[in-house]
Amino acid sequence: PYVLTERGVLRYEQVTYPMEERGLQFGDGVYEVVRLYNGTYIWLEEHLDRLYRSAAAIRLSVPFAPEELAARLEELRRLNDVHEDAILYLQVTRGSFPRAHAFPAENRPNLYAYIEPMARKRNEMTRGVRVIVTKDVRWEYCYIKSLNLLPNVLAKQEAVERGAFEAILHRDGIVTEGSSSNIFLVKAGTVYTHPATERILNGIVRTKVKQFCGELGIPFMEEAFSVHDLAQADELFLTSTTSSIIPIIQVDDTTIGSGQPGAVTQSLQAAYQTATQPAARN
Ligand code: PMP
After folding, report:
1. Is 0.95 exceeded by the ipTM?
2. Matching CATH topology for 2-117 and 122-275?
3. Of 50, 100, 236, 279, whose Cβ has the fewest other Cβ atoms within 10 Å?
C-alpha cells in the first residue's frame, strides 16, 4: 500500500517516525477521517475545510494548500486502487524535534494519510444500538479535531465493557456529544442537538443532518438537552463519518420510544443514502 506524506506519496514500508515526534509525545496535531463509498470520497471538501480550521486553531500549518492536498489524496486513492467501502485517515503534527513543550523554532510539520477498507455498519443502522451515559471530562476546545483523544478512548472503552456501542457524554447533566459521534434527540417531530459551540466537534454528518432536516421540512433546533430528557425522547440517534446515521434504541437500561428505529431517524437515513448516491449504491 501507499501512504501520502508531507514529502509526497511513499510506500507503506518507507514511512517511519523517530521517537521524538510531537504527535506521539504531546498529541500535538490534528486529524480527519473521511468516508469512501465504492472508492469515492464523500464530503472531502468539508473534511479538508475542517482540517485547516483545526490546524489554524492550534497554530499549525498544513503541508499542502487545500487544492493540492485534495489532488494528492485522489492520487493516493488511485495508486492504492481503492474501489470498495473504506476510510481515509489523515493527520498533521508539529513535526519531529528534540522534546520540549514549546513550539519548535522551525516550521516542519509531519503529515500522513492512508486508506483502509471499512464496511458499512448495516446491522447497527437497521436495528439500532444501545449506549451508556458517562461524564464528559474533556478540555474546553472540543471543536478542534485534535489527536488528544484519551478521554474519548476511556469513554468508549467503558461503553465496550458495558456491552454498548457508544458512550454519550454529559457536562453537568447536559448532553454534549458521543465519544466519537454527535447525538440527536427527537421529540414531537422536532430534532434537537447540542449547538456547535467550542464544547463539541461539529461533525460533518451533523451539518448534513441539519441540511436534510431543512430539505425534509423537519424542525431542527440547535438546543442542548439533558441526560434526564433522554428517557423521554421519542427517538435518539447518533452520527459520524464511520457510523453514518445510527438509531439509539436503549440508553443504559432504558428503552427509547418503541425500542425500534423511529420514523424521523429513518427518513434522515434515507436522505443520507440519497445524498451519497451514486457512490453509496448497494
Ligand atoms: N464528535 C466527536 C468527538 C468525534 O470524534 C466525531 C467523529 N470524528 C464526531 C463528533 C462526528 O464527526 P463527523 O461526522 O465529522 O465524523
Report:
1. yes
2. no
3. 100
Q: Which atom of ligand 1 is nearest to the CA of 205?
A: 14
Catalytic annotation on 145?
yes
pTM: 0.97
Ligand 1: distance of its center to the CA of 105 in Å?
32
pLDDT per position as a tens digit, 146-179: 999 999 999 999 999 999 999 999 999 999 999 9
User: Which residue's CA is the nearest one to ligand 1's atom 13?
Assistant: 203
Q: Encode burial over 177-190: b for 16+ CB neighbours within 10 A, e otherwise.
A: bbbbbbbbbbbeee
| Closest CA relative to residue 148, chosen from 217, 62, 211, 58 | 58
The angle formed by the CA atoms of residues 115, 168 and 210, to the nearest 5 degrees, is 70
Locus of grid cell 479535531: 145
Q: Decide which of 3.40.50.150, 3.40.50.2300, 3.30.470.10, 3.40.1710.10 is the CATH code for 2-117.
A: 3.30.470.10
Q: Which residues contact 143 (CB under 8 A, 6 or more apart)?
A: 57, 196, 197, 198, 199, 200, 201, 202
Residue nearest to atom 4 of ligand 1 (CA): 180
Q: What is the pLDDT of residues 21-62, one digit of tens each?
A: 999 999 999 999 999 999 999 999 999 999 999 999 999 999
Task: Please report, for the chain, the start and end positions of each structural domain, with discontinuous segments joined by +.
Answer: 2-117, 122-275
Q: Which atom of ligand 1 is nearest to the CA of 179?
A: 3
User: Out of 66-75, 213-222, 246-255, 269-278, which region has the weakest mean confidence (pLDDT)?
Assistant: 269-278
Q: Give pLDDT, residue 282.
A: 63
Pocket (CB within 6 angstroms of ligand 1): 33, 152, 177, 180-182, 201, 203-206, 239-241
